[in-house]
Specification:
Layout: H1 2-26, E1 33-37, H2 44-60, E2 64-68, H3 75-82, E3 90-94, H4 96-105, E4 117-126, E5 128-132, H5 141-150, E6 155-159, H6 165-177, E7 181-185, H7 189-197, E8 203-207, H8 208-216, E9 221-225, H9 240-243, E10 253-260, H10 265-279, H11 282-290, E11 294-295, H12 301-321
Parallel strand pairs: 1-2, 1-3, 6-7
Antiparallel strand pairs: 3-10, 4-10, 4-11, 5-8, 5-9
Helix pairs in contact: 2-10, 4-12
């Protein structure tokens, strides 16, 4: 009799348990939401997050707080958010480094980009610009490839560090065209760009926000952008795909909003819909473009997961080919 009562009680509880996520989603949000940013205040990522956080706050009716948690190659933020409750109140913005490259590059990663997170919104690409010293005898990508192949000594290229997206972008180009160039890693983007400008190294893929002023001043020459579409701020600079007749060439970072993996689907759908509305605003698109980013119409969560899988395969394979697996 006692077992029967327990069994009946369990059956009666099932509808309530099944309804819990739905009820939670209907009440969402009931308190402030935190978006964790893995970079310092003032970065391009931080600037854009604060812009849409304000609009999310207006549409959701609850405070949306931006919390900066830089460090450990963007992994400090990811580790913290992976351990957060999956209730839609702790979100994170991240990039290809933390969510595609570091998994293979680092010996130890304290989170699983696949199992611990689900994408909420893929809203901008962060392209790089292929820049050279103005004195280099190459005004186009084909001329640079020809020069690299014919040079008696290998050309040097800079990046902000081993295994970062800028480094891997040049290596991707090298492998595609069979080039021999020497990597000169620096500790920061400004240092790596300054030495191209000074002629200590010949070229590099550089972040748009950091290199645009120097390109406009004639201190760097822009040959191509790494995205599949041109940058609005450099309409006359071709994409690498156009410049080198390589339709499949695209090496970009990106910004995505993530949530812990077990976040209820109705909450994810609500956040995705709100972000899609926000990023459709011409003003938001203009502000993203102004800081050197490429705004996109957020694809579905399912399509974003497919894109993430392709990015992990692309960058992971390259890191392994370069012998960098577990090198950090």
């Amino acid at each position: 009799m006692k077992r029967l009562i327990v069994a009946i009680a369990g059956l009666l509880a099932i509808p309530f348990m099944l309804g819990a996520p739905t009820a939670q989603a209907q009440d969402y949000p009931s308190r402030p939401i935190t978006i964790v940013v893995p970079l310092a205040p003032g970065s391009g990522m931080d600037t854009l997050v604060r812009l849409y956080a304000e609009k999310l706050q207006q549409s959701l009716g609850k405070p949306v707080v931006v919390e900066n948690k830089p460090g450990a190659s963007l992994m400090l933020a990811a580790t913290a958010v992976a351990a957060a409750p999956a209730d839609g109140y702790t979100l994170m913005v991240s990039t290809s480094s933390a969510m595609a490259i570091n998994l293979v590059l680092f010996k130890k990663v304290n989170y699983d980009p696949v199992k611990d997170f689900v994408p909420v919104s893929f809203y901008v690409k962060s392209p790089f610009i292929l820049v050279v010293n103005p004195d280099l005898d190459a005004k186009t990508v084909p001329e640079l490839i020809k020069l690299a192949k014919e040079s008696k000594t290998p050309l040097n290229y800079s990046s902000p560090g081993v295994g970062v997206a800028q480094h891997l972008s040049v290596e991707y180009m090298k492998q595609k065209y069979g080039l021999d160039m020497v990597h000169v890693p620096y500790r920061s983007t400004p240092q790596s760009i300054t030495d191209i400008m000074a002629g200590h190294v010949q070229l590099g893929f550089a972040e748009a926000g950091a290199s645009l002023p120097l390109i406009r001043e004639g201190k760097l020459r822009a040959l191509a952008v790494s995205s599949s579409t041109r940058l609005p701020l450099l309409p006359d600079v071709p994409t690498f795909a156009e410049a080198a007749n390589a339709p499949d060439f695209e090496t970009v970072s990106w910004h995505m909003l993530f949530a812990p993996a077990a976040t209820p689907k109705p909450i994810l759908d609500r956040l995705h819909a709100e972000m899609s509305k926000i990023m459709a605003d011409p003003e938001m698109k203009q502000k993203a473009a102004t800081i050197g980013l490429l705004p996109i119409d957020p694809p579905s969560i399912a399509d974003t997961e497919k894109y993430l899988a392709s990015e992990r395969d692309k960058w992971g394979s390259l890191v392994r080919k370069l012998g960098l697996e577990g090198s950090q």
